[in-house]
């Protein structure tokens, strides 16, 4: 998950105002939840649904759907590995996305993100991507990074990329390395893998 | 006497250690230094924030490797997210995940340091014996051109067609199987990272290594470090456990790398002259993808084997850059692209036919180019603020034109940029579109695989952090031995410079005990 986040909402006064709007988005908007799994770690049902809507929008029309691959839950597990402060910024950015008022001012319509059509969601995300507000561009990059890295690191999507996957060197069965132990090395002219 | 590795999961109570030297960090600097100190009969304790991973753990899937082996679980970046920072976090540091490219420090850089930063004693002759020793231990040698993968060969073919310099690179490998997975941990221990070379050497000689221990504080009185305070971290999650490791050493060697070193000093209120964190350099990288009719398979084969320094010197008022290739696995490629949904799917469906070439910008050489600043965030963690200044914007624009010309000369049918709205180039006539495109922070993907500076070396205690002997100007038993001391970027991949400096620093640190 290479591109994720960092201080996405600490970009000055404008960022702080938007941060508040994100919290409002989480508090007030009714939203439309799908059926989030019960074992969420960082997200709650509401933010999971927002993320699921983002993932559905960012996944390709042809290919396994984001819901099928449960991208939102994969991102949730990654957020759990991250520092809590960073994960919290992502949660707030999701709230911002859901806040219809923000959508009205910064691209997209007044509807909450989860209740918007796919075309409207795309418009909102592109609006953030191309926004003059640096905080929104940064937030877009964070959310996009989490979603597309989660989608394209899933083994089920390797075939979409024509990627055969990594070869097996049997390394899982290699002996543990001991200090000063000479690890058996392939000979220098070993056959190249995978070809 | 044999030492040991103690992993975080083995620690069930608070630990206190005494030793001659406590080394903080196990990468290119820490590993080489550790082996040298143990060889001199010193008692060494090493603390590493990352986990201890061996080839048995490397499943070669990006999903596993990046969260396990990189800083920020793969997500380290500048504070505005404009520059993604790939930096290792594991026993072996970045040498466990780097792409193996080795260069001796260029003579012109050493001369620049002497002329503009007053550093004496770092010249090609004095460094030669250190580089030779490292080249022998890490088996650094030229990777034969005929073993270059198609991705790297495109760089060579394009450069030759245009009459530009390009040549095979040197790599630290032994029995490399040309698999292409260096960035996810070598599955056959072909890469001679510190985790399979100097660190096992040091452990065999008695060093105690603690992994999963992040150092939070140096206790000092302004002239001497008395204690090193570390916290045991959970493996795989950025959370503290309840346990601590405290070390009372005679000498401390800080080897945590650029970004982490400055922040540890700032957390420890060790910044008497205000220079800590300044002049952080990243070799900011821009890239273009060439799409070819033939199969490239850019995810297989040694990631970097051809390089070009044709544009390294663009005149006194311009930022120079050098050209290399990047391995293109699906996740990293998806992350680098600016698009999403079907547009991204369409790009990635061509992955077997894509060549990814890089231009690495050499920051810190122009007058007034201070690079970025590593800061201490209120929660104690590092932040990197990196303004992309006009000189860099100019060199990034020039780089895009160069990368597009290279791909076209090598036979690409289309070349695409990493803008949110990709600029597509099919013929030389399209190059004008690149000239007109926007460049800079958040305009297109920018990466860093080389982090340097933040604890600059120099003779003047008012403008630098350590002297040419790596000793902190104010704290007499504190040495900083890694890429954070570099006063500028290098214009080459930094690992061998760090190995060489650490090899040279062994005697300085040993003498301080």
Helix content of chain B: 25-40%
Q: In angstroms, what is the radius of gyration of chain B? A: 22 Å
CATH class of the largest domain in chain B: Alpha Beta
Counted beta strands of chain B: 24
Report the span from N to C terminus of chain B: 20 Å
Structural summary, described in words:
The complex is a heterodimer of chains A (195) and B (513). Chain A is mostly helical and 195 residues long. The longest helix of chain A is centred in the C-terminal third of the chain and has 19 residues. Chain A starts with 12 loop residues before the first helix and ends in a 43-residue tail after the last helix. Chain A has one domain. Chain A contains eight helices and no strands. In chain B, strands 1, 2, 3, 9, 10, 11, 12 and 24 form an eight-stranded mixed β-sheet that branches. Chain B has twelve helices and 24 strands. Chain B has two domains: 300 residues, FAD/NAD(P)-binding domain (3-Layer(bba) Sandwich); 159 residues, Cholesterol Oxidase, domain 2 (2-Layer Sandwich). With 513 residues, chain B is an alpha/beta fold. In chain B, a hairpin with a 4-residue loop joins β10 and β11. The interface between A and B is large, with 75 and 75 residues.
